[in-house]
Design brief:
The protein is α+β, with helices and mostly antiparallel strands. The protein has one domain: Aminopeptidase, CATH 3.40.630. Helix content is 29%, strand content 35%. The strands form 2 sheets. Strands 1-2-3-4-5 form a 5-stranded antiparallel sheet, with helices on both faces. Strand 7 and strand 8 form a beta hairpin. Helix 1 crosses helix 2. The chain is globular.
Length: 164
Amino acid sequence: MTMDQTHSITLKSKSGLCYSVGSGSAIDCSLILDMYRVFSPKPASQGLPPADTETCEKWVKDILEVGINVVARTGDKITGHAALIPDRKRHTGEFIIFVHQDCRNLGVGTELTRWTFERARGLGFRSIWLTVAVNNFIAIKLYRKLGFEYCEMDDCERTMSIEL
């Protein structure tokens, strides 16, 4: 399935919750910030999302400006946000993803990741990489399931990548 910038898909989670996944943009800024205001734990990993409101607003605006953004929506709320921060010269990008605590372990993160992969492929990316805290077992399980492999390890975090 090819996914363009304006397309979204409606899905049903493992629990039966209906949600949609589609491209995110600056128009979504306030809804993304609403999700991060109540996000738990804060910060979730590696200082993100920022706990300070002003810092979080700047961070989200920066990501929306430079990144390729994907959001999950449940009703009129954003319940997941993924972004690919591009390094266009190398045809790669850094992947980040956050799913609202009420929507975790339901398949939302998997669909956000798949959508991001499709967008990256369509833009000519050859690979995606990320860093993850060593104790973020749920995220590591998702990344491994989707094909990410370890490329660097230290005591606190792992760098993982996937060839597209």
